[in-house]
Amino acid sequence: MNFFAQQERARSHTKRMLILFVLAVAAIVAAVDLVLLIAFGAAGGDRHHTVNVSHVQPQVVFLASALVLAIIGLATLYKVTTLRSGGGAVARQFGATLVPPDTTNFAYKRLRNVNESKGWGLNGWYPGELGWWIPKRFQNTK
Hints:
Number of helices: 4
Number of domains: 2
Structural class: mainly alpha
Largest sheet: 2 strands, antiparallel
Strand order of the largest sheet: 1-2
């Protein structure tokens, strides 16, 4: 596959994921606001009555929305900084074990040999690069 075409495809996927993330955040904020309106009696109830927003102070809805956005923003910031620290940090989150190049463990040797013989292994190793053994429960295999 053409490298530049692959890069453009990756950019379009990234844009799509960002748009979907923003839409999901907006939907979560709207859902929390709706729950607040129902809890304070401004929406729901009898279907013959119109929505009465006078029961809810706008500051309460604004503060709830700001709180939800802050929680989502802080969680996103935490996750981005965790992922930015590299593949090793992500592997450690899954309980992976570092596979040293001079290991005596047969399974680890076999894993390194297979990955090094292919140049690009299943998990993207270069020969001599650090490798991680991920427990079976976290592997995406059947």
